[in-house]
Each structure stands twice: as structure tokens, then as C-alpha cells.
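Entry 12.
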Amino acid sequence: MKQRIIEIMKDVLEEQNIDINSTQDSLENWNSLRHLNLVSELEDEFDIELEPDEIAEMKSVQKIVDIIKQKNN
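Predicted 3D structure (C-alpha cells):
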């Protein structure tokens, strides 16, 4: 799951240097519009619906992985 999330992020953010330690601050292309696109792609890929507070918390790859794991339990 983690690797799939990273692949989606690379595609949506048009950024190749993404790993588990990447954050919104460390990725230049991670802006508000791309964040919304990322949320949409993740919801489609993992068949989940993210709540507004979860979307607001998604500021790092690790946090995204944690939120999606929690949604899939």
C-alpha cells in the first residue's frame, strides 16, 4: 500500500523524489490544487472517503499512509 501511495503521489505531484519521509514543505509541487487532486486519486484507488479533518492532516507521506491504513481497517 505504501508504495502504491508513493506512486500516486509521484504522478499527481509530478515529482519523482518522493519517499516515506517526504512532507508538504519538502515538495515544491505539493500545492493546494494538487493536494485536492491527490485526495481524489487516493479515494478512487483505495475506495475510501476521506473526511475534511483527515484531508487537512495529510501533510506528509507517512501521515497519508497512516490515515489510509486506518480507513481500510
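Annotation: The chain has one domain: 2-71. The chain is about 60% helix and 0% strand.
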